[in-house]
Design a protein that fits this description.
alpha+beta; Rossmann fold; Neuraminidase; 8-stranded mixed β-sheet; 15 helices; elongated; S-adenosyl-L-methionine; EC 2.1.1.290
Length: 670
C-alpha cells in the first residue's frame, strides 16, 4: 500500500511536467522521474482537478472564518500543502497530514533537506517528536496507521487538531485499502467528533464489469486489494454509506460527469490538445471507474462543490434491458495469439471465410502493432483458424490500426486509412488481392499493392477511426468514406464518394441536415444508402444520433432517424443491418451502471431495444470496444473477434478468443 503513494507521486510529477497542471513541488517530493503515457497523464489530471476543485471551494466558502483546518489522510508524498501555501490560500488554515510512520519520516527528511520546501513551511527547528515527524506553524506531518483509530485520535490531539473549527477531511484513494469496518469507523468518527466538517473522497467504483475486473485483478496482484468495492460497488452505495454514518449532505459524481460538468470547456480543450492521444475508450472507462464524493455536516453556508453547471443534463438512470443474448466461446479457436488484438478490422471475403488485418495485439509473445493477417474459415459447422499470412512482404502494409477494409469482389478488397502512432499522418489506400482459386480453406496468399489515386483523393483519405461503406447511385457502385480523425483534426465531418472499381473521386450533391463531426461511429449499407450511428463528437462526448444517407433526386439526402426511447450515446461499437433492423454491438457509453450489449433499432419505426450480453459461460472479462464483428444472417449469429485495450495503469486486456453471440431469440422473423 505504501508503494502506491510513491508511484502516484511519480505519475503526477510526469503529468505536471507535460503541462497538465501547475505544480512545481511535485518533482521535489516524488524523487524518481519517469515519463508516463498520455492516458496516465489524463487520469492523474482529472484526479488532481477533482481534489483541487473541492479543496479550493472549501477554502473559498470558509475564507471569512477566523480559523479552519485540513486533515489529509494517507497523504503520501502529495504536495497539496506547498501548493496552497505558495498560492497564498492558507492565511488561517492549518494542514495536518497523516501517513504510515516510515512514509511520514521520509517526507519530513525530504522537507528538511530542501530549501524550497523548508522555507515555505518556516521550519520551527524543533526535532520531530515521536509520531509528529514535522511541525511547522501551519503544517503538521504525523506518522500513524489510519486503521488504529484511538491512536490516530490521540496523536491528532497532541498535534493540536481542534474539533470545534470547520475541518476538511481528504482521502484520495486511501480508505479502500483498509478493511471496511475500519474505514467505516473512521468516516463515522469524523462525523461524530467534528460538528462542522466536510469530507472529500476519491476512489474506485464498479468492480464487476469487464474493466472493473481487470482493475481489481491488478490491485490484487500488487497485494493492495480494494476492500470498499464489494460493499460499496457504485456511487449510490457510497452516498448511502456517508449519509448513514452521520453526514447530512453528500453529493457524488463519477469522473466522466465531473469532467463534463465541473471543468470549463476551454480548459477541457486545452487538456485535450496537450499530447497526441487516441485512447478515448480507456480514458472514458477509467473515468467511469473513479468517483469524487463531497459530504458535509453543520456547514453554514452548506458546502456543495459538486453542483453541476445547469447546462449539462444529469445522466439518466440505469439503461432498461429488454432481454439477454447468450455469449459462447468458439470451439477450436482458443489459444490462437493472432486473434488477440484490438483496433483491427475483420471482413467476410466470401461465405464462411473471414480475413482479419491490422490492430495492436500479441505476436511472438510481444505486444505490438500486428503485421500478420489471420484467416478464419467455417468447415463442417466449426470455425477454424486456417492460415496466417506471415510477414506481409514489405512496409506497404504499414502495421495499421483503425483502418477499414471493403470487399469489392471475392478476389479484391480495399484498405482505407488507418494509422501507426497517433502523431503520424494517416496511411494511404492499399489493394488486397486474393487468388481466384482459394477454396473454403481461405486465401493462403494475400498480395498487397499500393493504390494510386489522384492526389486530392489521397490526401482526403489520410484518416483513421472513419467508416467506408458500399452504396449505390444511379445503378453504379461507390464507396462512401465518412468521418474519422487525422493527425491534425481531432474529429472530421466530411465525406467522399469513390466510384468503384477504379476509385475515381466523384462529386455528388448531398442535401439535408449535416451530421455533426464524429469518429468511432458505425456505418452500414442499407437500401443503397448508408446508416450512421453514434460515434465520438468534437468535445470527446459520445453521440446518440442515427442518420440515413439515401439516394434522393440527383444526389443524396441526409435524414435523421428518431429512435425511441432515445439511443444511449455510444462509440467504438460495431454494427450490422438485418431485415430492416440495425444491430449495434458493444461500444463505450457513460452509463456506468452497465456496459453496452446488443442494441436493436427498427429502422422503419425507430423502436430501440437494449439487450444485455450473458457472459456466464465465459471465464474471462469480455471487453466490447475496439473489436470487430461479423454477422452471419443464416445462423442469426454474431462472431466477435478481438477487442480490449490498455486499461489505464492496470495492464493491457485482449479478449483471448472469438465469441459467438446467438441472436435467434431477439431476431424473430416477421
Amino acid at each position: 500500500v505504501q508503494g502506491t503513494g510513491g508511484s502516484s507521486a511519480v505519475s503526477k510529477c510526469s503529468a505536471a511536467a507535460r503541462g497538465y497542471f501547475q505544480d512545481r513541488f511535485l518533482r521535489l517530493l516524488a524523487g524518481r522521474r519517469r515519463r508516463r503515457a498520455p492516458l496516465i497523464h489524463r487520469g492523474y489530471y482529472i484526479r488532481a482537478r477533482a481534489v483541487d476543485h473541492c479543496v479550493q471551494d472549501f477554502l473559498l466558502k470558509t475564507q471569512s472564518l477566523p480559523r479552519t483546518q485540513i486533515l489529509s489522510l494517507g497523504a503520501g508524498f502529495d504536495s497539496l500543502y506547498f501548493r496552497l501555501k505558495d498560492m497564498g490560500l492558507l492565511h488561517h488554515t492549518v494542514v495536518y497530514e497523516v501517513d504510515f510512520p516510515n512514509v511520514a519520516c521520509q517526507k519530513a527528511t525530504l522537507i528538511k533537506g530542501m530549501k524550497e520546501l523548508s522555507a515555505l513551511v518556516g521550519d520551527t527547528g524543533e526535532e520531530g517528536l515521536g509520531a509528529i515527524t514535522f511541525s511547522g506553524e501551519d503544517y503538521k506531518l504525523l506518522g500513524v496507521d489510519l486503521s488504529e483509530l484511538s491512536e490516530l485520535e490521540r496523536i491528532l490531539e497532541e498535534a493540536g487538531l481542534n474539533n470545534e473549527i470547520p475541518t476538511l477531511f481528504i482521502a484520495e484513494v486511501v480508505l479502500t485499502y483498509m478493511e471496511n469496518s475500519r474505514s467505516d469507523a473512521l468516516i463515522q468518527w469524523a462525523a461524530e467528533h467534528f460538528p462542522q466538517a466536510c469530507f472529500l473522497l476519491y476512489e474506485q467504483v464498479h468492480p464487476e464489469d469487464p474493466f472493473g475486473q481487470v482493475m481489481q485483478q491488478h490491485f490484487r496482484q500488487l497485494n493492495t486489494a480494494l476492500h470498499s468495492l464489494a460493499q460499496y460497488p457504485d456511487c449510490e452505495a457510497q452516498q448511502r454509506r456517508f449519509l448513514g454514518k452521520g453526514w447530512t449532505e453528500c453529493s457524488v459524481m463519477d469522473m466522466n460527469e465531473f469532467f463534463t460538468c465541473c471543468i470549463p470547456e476551454d480548459e477541457q480543450q486545452r487538456m485535450q490538445t496537450l499530447e497526441p492521444f487516441d485512447e478515448y475508450e480507456e480514458w472514458h472507462l477509467k473515468c467511469s471507474h473513479y468517483f469524487v464524493l463531497a459530504a458535509s455536516k453543520g456547514m453554514e453556508p452548506s458546502w456543495t462543490p459538486l453542483l453541476p453547471s445547469m447546462t449539462v443534463p444529469r445522466r439518466a438512470g440505469p439503461v432498461g434491458m429488454a432481454g439477454s443474448v447468450p455469449a459462447a466461446v468458439c470451439a477450436r479457436l482458443s489459444g490462437i495469439p493472432g486473434l488477440r488484438r484490438y483496433g483491427h478490422h475483420s471482413v467476410l471475403v466470401k461465405p464462411n471465410v473471414i480475413l482479419t488485418t491490422g490492430g495492436f495485439g500479441e505476436e511472438d509473445g510481444q505486444h505490438c502493432r500486428m503485421r500478420n493477417f489471420q484467416v478464419l474459415s467455417k468447415q463442417a459447422g466449426y470455425w477454424e483458424a486456417v492460415c496466417v499470412t506471415q510477414n506481409i512482404p514489405d512496409k506497404r502494409w504499414g502495421e495499421r490500426l483503425y483502418h477499414t477494409v471493403s470487399c469489392l469482389s471475392d478476389t479484391l478488397a480495399l484498405v482505407v486509412g488507418g494509422r501507426t502512432s497517433p502523431s503520424s499522418t494517416g496511411l494511404g489506400m492499399l489493394w488486397l488481392k486474393f487468388p481466384k482459386t482459394c477454396d473454403a480453406s481461405g486465401p493462403d496468399d494475400v498480395a498487397v499493392e499500393l493504390v494510386s489515386v489522384e492526389p486530392t483523393a489521397e490526401a482526403a483519405l489520410l484518416r483513421w477511426r472513419h467508416s467506408t461503406t458500399e452504396i449505390t447511385f444511379i445503378g453504379e457502385q461507390y464507396l462512401f468514406v465518412y468521418g474519422g480523425r487525422s493527425a491534425l483534426e481531432p474529429v472530421l465531418g466530411d465525406w467522399y464518394f469513390l466510384h468503384t472499381p477504379e476509385l475515381s473521386y466523384t462529386v455528388i450533391a448531398v442535401e439535408g441536415p449535416v451530421p455533426e463531426s464524429r469518429h468511432s461511429h458505425s456505418a452500414c449499407s442499407w437500401k443503397g444508402g448508408v446508416v450512421i450511428a453514434g460515434g465520438l463528437g468534437a468535445a470527446e462526448q459520445p453521440l446518440g444520433s442515427v442518420f440515413l444517407l439515401r439516394e434522393f433526386g440527383h444526389g443524396f439526402q441526409w435524414q435523421t432517424i428518431e429512435t425511441h426511447p432515445p439511443l444511449v450515446p455510444r462509440y467504438s461499437h460495431t454494427a450490422h443491418v438485418h431485415e430492416g433492423k440495425l444491430l449495434l454491438v458493444g461500444g463505450v457509453w457513460f452509463h456506468a451502471s452497465s456496459v453496452p450489449g446488443v442494441t436493436v433499432i427498427d429502422l422503419m419505426t425507430g423502436l430501440c431495444l437494449d439487450y444485455v450480453i450473458n457472459v456466464e459461460h465465459l471465464e474471462w472479462p469480455l471487453m466490447l470496444h475496439n473489436h470487430s464483428s461479423i454477422f452471419l444472417p443464416n445462423e442469426k449469429e454474431l462472431l466477435v473477434i478481438g477487442g480490449g485495450g490498455n486499461c489505464f495503469s492496470f495492464g493491457t486486456h485482449l479478449n483471448p478468443e472469438p465469441v459467438s453471440l446467438s441472436l435467434s431469440s431477439i431476431l424473430i422473423s416477421h
